[in-house]
Each structure stands twice: as C-alpha cells, then as structure tokens.
Amino acid sequence: MSIKDWPADERPREKLLQRGANALTDAELLAIFLRTGTIGKSAVDMSRDLLSEFGSLQALLNADQTRFCQCHGLGQAKYVQLQAVLEMARRHFCEILQRGNALTSPEITRAYLSAQLRGLSYEVFACLFLDNQHRVIVWEELFRGTIDGASVYPREVAKRALFHHAAAVIFAHNHPSGINEPSQADKQITEKLKQALGLFDIRVLDHFIVGDGNPYSFAEHGLL
C-alpha cells in the first residue's frame, strides 16, 4: 500500500506537522528524507530495511560514501543531501552555543556535543569554557587520541581555562566504540580535573560521554 493511501494521521509528513518531529520513529524520519520508495515498497518500508541493514540510524548517517551508495534506492545524490543536512545541523548548534550565549538547556548542550563528537573514529577530549554567568566563551578540542583513548593532562586543561578566564567548564569526550558508559579511567581523570581546577575556583559543571544514544552526564549520575 502506498503511503498516500494510509490514514492521514499515520503518514510521516502529516504526523510531523500535527505532532512534531520527535513523535516520529527513526524509519518515519528517514522516509521523509528519502521521499519515495521503490517498486513494491513504500518509503517507510524501505527505511525499515535500511535501518535493519545498517543496524541503527546512527550507523546509516555515519556510513561512508561507498557503503551508502551501494544500498538499493540510495546513491550519490542522496549521500550529498544527507551530508548537507548533517552539516547544517552542526552549524545550527554551533550558532546556538556561540560566544556570549548562556547555556539554558541541557538538551541543546547534548545535541551540540553529539554533533561535534559523534561518529568520529578516534577519541577526542574537548571543553566548553564558560564565564561566571555560564555564557559560552569558546569550545575547544584539547586532546586527540586513537580508537583506544586520548591522554588528558590536568595541567594543560588548567592552563587553557586560565587563558580563557573561564569560571566554569563542561568537559566532553567520545567513545568510538559507541558505549557511553564511563570507564574507571574516565572517572579518575574527571576527579583529577575537578581537583586541579578547584585550586583556581573554576567549577566543573559536567562531563559528557558521547557514544550511541543520549550522551552520558556525570552530573546527572552523581559523579561530580
């Protein structure tokens, strides 16, 4: 059955307009992007097949050009469109968290960090430096590592915080494995950073781990 023959409140586009984008499943969102299906399959059916083939929406979005274009119904034009959409999302969150803007929403912060760090094949440790009213001073990548991790040096972090005259910081790093639970090493370095910055009255507001799903918050789990 074609999507146009579905009840109006079940069609992805109409559902989005009536209830908002967050009411749609991954397959329904992907179907809107694809626009059309193939012979015998609606865009939603095709989207479900693609999600099953790749394993997740994230894996599909992070696929390289060769892998993406090999899939039936996809191709270079769709790949270009997808990369443009992803880059617009990154720039959107960069503008929201540009210098001088206050952090007012944990979800915006999570979305920004995900846009910056998710999908990388190597580990990055980065920091949002904030003033005493929690307005963004700058986002800065501090350390970069291999797929196994990045070495983090509290002294260097403190130097950058003092350079930016930061009153508070939010740390973030990614796990290329996709696992967003903190390791014992993550917990230990966070405590060392908190102690080092505390000597200069610089508060550590949170430390996020970006993997699959929602970024993990140290603060929300009582680890700060």
Automatic annotation (TrEMBL):
CDD domains: MPN_DUF2466. One of its GO terms (molecular function) is metallopeptidase activity. InterPro entries: MPN (IPR037518), RadC_JAB (IPR025657), RuvA_2-like (IPR010994), UPF0758 (IPR001405), UPF0758_CS (IPR020891), UPF0758_N (IPR046778). One of its GO terms (biological process) is proteolysis. Keywords: Hydrolase, Metal-binding, Metalloprotease, Protease, Zinc. It holds the Pfam family UPF0758_N. NCBIfam families: PRK00024.1 (NF000642), radc (TIGR00608). Belongs to the UPF0758 family. This is DNA repair protein RadC. The gene is radC.
